[in-house]
Amino acid sequence: MSVEHQTRLLYPLNKFYQEKVMTRNAKIRKALADIMKVITTILKEVEIQEPRYISSLVQNENGIYEGLNVVSSTEFEITLFLNQMGVFNFVDDGSIPGCAVLKLSDGRKRSMSLWVEFITASGYLSSRKMRSKFQTLLIRAVEKSQQQQPNQPNQQSVVKAIQENSSGEVKLQIFEKYFVTLIPAFKCSGIWPRSAAQWPMPHIHWPHNEVVAAVKNEGFSMLSRENPHFYVGKQNASSENDAWLLCFNDAENILLSGGCRKTCLSILKTLRDRNLDLRDEPIKNYHLKTLVLFECEKHPREMDWDIGCLGDRIIGVLLQLLSCLQCRKCPHFFLPSVDLFAAYSSQTLDSAARAVWALTRQIITNPHSLQQL
Fold first, then answer.
1. What is the CATH number of the domain that holds 107?
2. What is the pTM for the complete model shown?
3. Residue 108 contacts by C-beta under 8 Å, 6 or more apart in sequence?
4. Which domain holds residue 301?
């Protein structure tokens, strides 16, 4: 893209950021302030019922909640880190894409484990059993919360539990318009999974060695949730339901530090909410985050992430997204065997590709159209 076109894009993008992105972010912060009060009360009740589920929901020095993931302006995920794994070994043999298992250490008796009732006959800690127990506790806590509310006609329900039959998860509907999924998890710091061993690629000069060390030291999380990376129509085997989903959110956030990377992602998320919130939701914020990371590899120099290059980076990510939709494949940044589009039909991805191309073409040909987007 020419310097002249970069300059043409920069002013509309800055204006879009000030008027649309910052407004979106402010609304999310305000919503979270109210939502977290409700969630904290629910989790305290869960902890009273079952002390092993100790809430790890705390704010850091920047006021950001650890384990919080903003899926959209009305949908959130909260990862709740459980007590340490203890006597379990981490097994990552690549047999279940995007997942690993926790196996009881050799010579240990099941009865010695803190999580004895969640261990299978083969000695694996079952993600499915753990999730089922947590959701039972969560539903009870919500019911108790509802009983404590004054029963008045036409009163807005503060919190409701909505059970997802397909995944076994429970979403909390708060103030009738916000949806929160709570996910039990284990934090794995200081280790790195074998299935992600190819990162960083030796021929790509990003990120610097000290950043790579920080990312691998941060490690990853193991989530108790259904694997979303299966192909359409594939039936989940029991072993797959017992496996734990690998999550690299914190590591990814380290990589997005510096330059205009986070600004780029914030703009893309806002464009997605306003223009690409399509049926079946084939384009999620996580897809955009993944593609920004690939854009960082394509443009490894810090000068390529100067604010003056913001327009190039936005267009670059949108064109990457279009290519992935047309190829019907979007690889996970750390786990190349995982396809983030595997669960979507060809028709859904083709429809999304047309919408992405229409948006991208409009931004390229008429940057001032951002005012209406």
1. 3.30.460.90
2. 0.91
3. 87
4. 3-147+156-371
